[in-house]
Amino acid sequence: MNMDEYTAPSGPSFGASKDSSRWYARRGKRALDIFISLILVPVIAPAILILYLVVRADGGPGVFAHARIGRQGRVFACFKLRTMVPDAERALADVLASDPAAAREWAETQKLRVDPRVTRVGAFLRRTSLDELPQIWNVLRGDMSLVGPRPVTAPELKRYGPYRSVYLSLTPGITGLWQVSGRNDVSYDERRLLDARYAQTVTLVRDLWLIFKTAQVLVRPTGR
Fold it and tell me: CA–CA separation, 49 vs 113, rounded Å?
């Protein structure tokens, strides 16, 4: 599949001069991240605290920090509210070893539609995307942007093939084209193409549109 075979979601005209697009990508995008994040922090911090205490109630840690690959290959700790049982890595290995169908699904998508590792509270957090609220700290630190490709692990990055350089040229985002394009219904190949599509059109108008579309998606949660 090549990039022309996948069409990103329709939206407003994203036309912008090359100079203005380059300026926004270099400086304006970071300024937008800080500005919006500082507005959001007082609103979402109480929610993070409450959810943290709920997650901690089962005895495991409340926040999970997972190593992800950032811009230019820099490894950073991506923060999430914990949605899985404490010993999730071993649980995954057991599932993949005992269930061939689950192993095939994991190989194709790096996800399981029915994931036995996910707790009851975790299922709610994933469905509503509330587990990703702590990533606002990643944005303030500069690890992530509000809009960009979904942050990947080192093994996942190997699957990007010729699109690896595209991913590494961008700052991973809390939201992006993948999140507003069907999310878990989008194949891994299509996800790579969406990252490449976004890299071609990094503009203020597009980022604001994607943030608006994400808010619409959150109203009718479908995450897993």
Answer: 28
Q: From CA 53, how far away is CA 47, in angstroms rounded?
A: 10
**Predicted TM-score of the model (pTM):** 0.80
Instruction: Indicate the SS3 state at residue 118.
Output: strand
Tell me the β-bridge partners of 67.
Answer: 77
| Burial class for 122, CB neighbours closer than 10 Å (0-12, 13-18, 19+) | buried
In 57-146, where does DSSP find H-type helix?
A: 88-98, 100-109, 120-128, 135-141
In this prediction, residue 42 carries a pLDDT of: 95
Q: 140-154 burial by CB neighbour count: b if 16+ within 10 A, else e?
A: eeebbbbbbbbbbee
User: What is the SS3 assignment for 163?
Assistant: helix
Cα distance between the two ends of the chain: 26
Confidence band, pLDDT 50/70/90 cuts, at residue 83: very high
Backbone phi, psi, residue 13, to 5°: -65, 130
Q: What are phi and psi of 44, to 5 degrees?
A: -95, -15
- Using one digit for the tens of pLDDT, what is the confidence trace for 123-178? 999 888 899 999 999 999 999 999 999 999 998 898 888 899 999 999 999 999 88
Q: How far apart are CA 223 and CA 106, in angstroms?
A: 17
Element (H, E) at 216: helix 204-219
List Cβ neighbours of 30 (8 Å cut-off, separation of 6 or more).
142, 145
- For the cut 60, the answer to whether the pLDDT of residue 195 exceeds it is yes
Handedness of CA 79, 82, 87, 90 (dihedral sign): negative
